[in-house]
């Protein structure tokens, strides 16, 4: 068995059909030291029970996935989204507190796309900023960092109007770095000609709250949401990106989050085993 | 019948199953004033015959599609690609000379993705610059403008390592604007938070050699290459983009280039009719 890198964390999206208990078990059984759970499964198990399972596992908690989806115009839908994010903040604080030392209270935010029927991209982006401003006091009170995640531009209309790292950093700039940071995900950012400089800026501004690695390969799957691959199975050169994140001062866990039907169809233990192997080959050599 | 906007041009990719003669006929029959042809069909008809057809039509020639595909490392494949681009330059000059007054000798360049098995994105991008430097003297001698087209980042690995307008402008900066320019395509650039500023820069630097409009809609088609829609059928706000291109000084024809299986399956005359209508509603009101 390949010994997992000590900073590897399994994001539950990689083994999405698991319950919290199952996800924690296969992660621990593989010798991995950290996990990030998804809200759907946490709510299914219940927050208290999820926290109990995490606490009993000895795993670190790396991120909570995910908040966001707050690009709607003012009204009940927007209010409900913001309230739901407040719940997510509390979940994050609870689960991070239950994790082993080194856990991080980081809530990843996928901000959402254009509201149905809208073409006002600039307006949606402005409402992201407004939402962060509204949620920041709650995050601060809970000791949680909101991690703005720029998603690949192919998701700009339906999942995330936040498309680049500078965009995320510009929003974060108005807030304490302990409260609002960014998530760096290789799948979303690898194509950017200036990504290394942007990561450097994120480091100087103290904003890197999460680092996620997964690979890009074409042709994309018919459902482009499910087009992520084990590190090393695609075309991303993890060396420069990982060294840049390291040089930027990020020393936390590194998550692998693979939305991919074939991986979901595999037994979770096998998905974790292959994640450990891919990470070991493609990412670990570049970690300090 | 809707009267086509005088600056609309039909790119042959919208009616890809046509011969040159058919493409010219349906374009002219619809009352459209300009056309851009594709190399495959031009070579099938023969360059001299294609030029004769264009000359007889009274249509302006807007762009020739397409050169590029020169990211290979040095060797026979790269040499063949560069030689083929020299042929494309000659085709462009010949067809533009055959077109009505107002024709433009513009060769659109889709630069190509990563070579098979490569993860060296920076290297591939450097070879784009080298290829442009090699082809510029040929283009200048022929009176042709090479239009570097940044493609959507979802094509970075397999079709175009050129992903943003600044990247294209930085390459173009070393050359006479009459020889190396850029192509602005709404489908590829609409998501960019700074796209209006980038278009402004392109104008100041005299680089806008082509403006293409088509729409973005999700979910994308299973083959994401074929995901383009008639203007107005998606989420792109053509107002700010078109006004920025106008303000940047571009006064040439505006092409609609729709790679989409359903559009290809329609009779070409219907595709042109719907293009005229969509352009009239979504784009024309923003042209000076």
TrEMBL record, chains A, B:
Pfam families found in the cross-reference section: AP_endonuc_2 (PF01261)
InterPro entries, per database record: IolE/XylAMocC-like, Xyl_isomerase-like_sf, Xyl_isomerase-like_TIM-brl
Residue stretches making up the Xylose isomerase-like TIM barrel domain: 25-273
Gene Ontology molecular function: any one: isomerase activity
Keyword match Transferase: no
Highest taxon, organism lineage: Bacteria
Keywords in alphabetical order: Carbohydrate metabolism, Isomerase
The keyword Isomerase is annotated on this UniProt entry: yes
Residue ranges crossing the lipid bilayer per the database entry: none
The protein's name in its UniProt record: Sugar phosphate isomerase/epimerase
